[in-house]
Amino acid sequence: MDRQLPFLFLLFLCLLSIFPDLSGSTPLRVSGGHGDRKTKLSVLKLVTGRSSATIDPTRVTQISWRPRAFIYRNFLTDEECDHLITLAKDKLEKSMVADNESGKSVESEVRTSSGMFLSKGQDEVVANVEARIAAWTFLPKENGESIQILHYEHGQKYEPHYDYFHDKVNQELGGHRVATVLMYLSDVEKGGETIFPNSEAKKSQPKGDDWSDCAKNGYAVKPRKGDALLFFSLHLNATTDPLSLHGSCPVIEGEKWSATKWIHVRSFETVFNNECQDQNPSCSQWAVNGECDKNPLYMVGSENSVGHCRKSCKVCS
After folding, report:
1. Which whole number is the average pLDDT over 198-208?
2. pLDDT confidence of residue 172
3. What angle (nearest 5°) sits at the alpha carbon of residue 52, between those of residues 47 and 53?
4. Do residues 61 and 169 both lie within one domain?
């Protein structure tokens, strides 16, 4: 029964999204990149551990049921988007992919962006965003990986892939990724859409000339600053969902910034509390690239947070 509880919560969340009147109506000022407005909206305040976060189900739209995917308009404010980009700008490295057999991170032309990981609760803004994600998804914060910031320049992409794992190594670190929250930190003049090639809704989505050719090969979501996309890689019975195949179309004009939070079926933290281990398969490569010195808060940690790559940075034994 315990294993079914997270999925029951997800079902409850879906009902809130479809029937927002289930939550009380209260005045809320919404701020973001698309204007401020003061109106009566249905809001839901949830307490997650020491933090509390307010979410507004009326801004959530179900875009697909196979795979399960939802858009939350203005999930982040302009200020939050800009702050996350600022934290990442001088720490970007070429993005890697997980090898399907070994689980090790390797370079690939499949993924041509650059990126970096923030530390959990790195500052007040990051902590608030993480609390909001936990409130929206009804999944514990400890099940989430650190937020990854990604930057796509002209022509850069991430070809269709799955967020659940094919290797056993990565499944030991919290199990499969059950859900992904993809937050758009910038608008993109053209291209850069998130595409679901296998979505059953792809044929019913009208697309004009303002969509890239890549986006026309499936159900697509345009990057809009402040919006967040939530989709699930597992079915409600915890089996993998092949319809969750997704990718990032090449940027044609402008640039694309995004932030990703991957959420696992169990805690992504407890395995490492008392052991000298790395929390990310890419740690050894990052250490070789000098990230222990460039990004010590994430890699090594501080008095208030445990580093994610302490073994590779040789600060524990």
Report:
1. 92
2. 76
3. 110
4. yes
